[in-house]
Structures are given as C-alpha cells and as structure tokens.
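Progress report, Aim 2. The chain analyzed during this reporting quarter is listed below.
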Amino acid sequence: QKAHPDIRIVVTLAGLEIRQGRGADAVNLLRAWLKGHPKDLPAEFALANGYLAIRQYKPAEAEFESLYKMEPNNVVVLNNLSWLYQRAGDPRARAMAEKAYALAPHAPQVADTLGWILVSRGEATAALPYLKQAAAGMTKDMDVQYHLAVALDRSGNKAQAKALLERVVASKATFENKGDAIKLLDQIRGS
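Predicted structure tokens for the chain:
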C-alpha cells in the first residue's frame, strides 16, 4: 500500500476493521486517505458507511449529503440519506425515499425505508404495500419484519401483527428493535 497506494486496499482494510469491531480505526483510515485524495468517490462512500456502522449519524449524514451532490441518482445514497433524515426528524426524508423508490421499485431495502417513513408520519395503511414488499424480500431481517408488524397494528390488523410479532420475538436473531417488538407484542396481547 505504501509503494502503490490503492483505494481498493484502503476500502478492504476499512471493511476488515469494521468487522473486527474497530469502526473508529476504519473511519480514521478513510479520513486519512481522503486528505491526500479529496473527492475520491469510493473512499467517501466507504467513509459514509463507516460512520453508519459505528452509529455516528451526523457525520454519516454529512458524508451522504456530499455524495448526493456528486451522484443525485444513486439509490444507495438516496436510501441511506432518507433513513438518516427520518431518524433526525428531517422533513426531507419522505421525498428522498420516494425518489429512491422511483429509481429502484424492486429493492426491498428501499421499500422498507419508504414504508417506515410513512409509518412514522402516521400513514400506516399507505405504508403497508411497501413494508409487505420489504418483508417478503428480507425475510431474515427482523427489523424489517418488525416494521411491517407496526404498520399492521396501526392500520387495525392486530391479529396479523400479533402473529408476525410472535415470530419476530421468538427469533434468535439480535436486532435493533427487539425491545420495541416485545413491548408491542405485550400491548397487543393485553388489549
């Protein structure tokens, strides 16, 4: 790498650092590369994803906004930026997610992001087609399954929500919304 600098090696090393639980080292490696190679698109993309991996959402948002200026029709950039906006309560989330979905209507990750944004805005019934699509395409992602269960519950489909939540909670998978899934299942069972 010292003799023949190559972004592919840097991105690979950063990915290894993240997988080893050293996300901060990955971010530092990528930032150092970018100092000597400004506007290196693969490095900026890896840095944005590195920030996501270590849950530094504000710097991730800034990186994805920079990428959006360079590639306004990149579905991954649009999807991740809309997710970050939704997380921050930024009203631009929906338009960004709709644009991503228009470009990639068969991508379950994109459908999940758009559907979850709609749920968070109180539009659970409108979210159902997107979240059903996402759940069908990402059957092992329990966060996506949880999103569908919330939409089902909020749109009045309590029995379907309960059945789905029982599968989600029984899953041995660890996922971000597991505590919320347990709480929602308890609420449905109690009503």
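Residues 51 and 59 are 7 Å apart (CA to CA). The chain has eleven helices and no strands. These observations will guide the mutagenesis work planned for the next reporting period.
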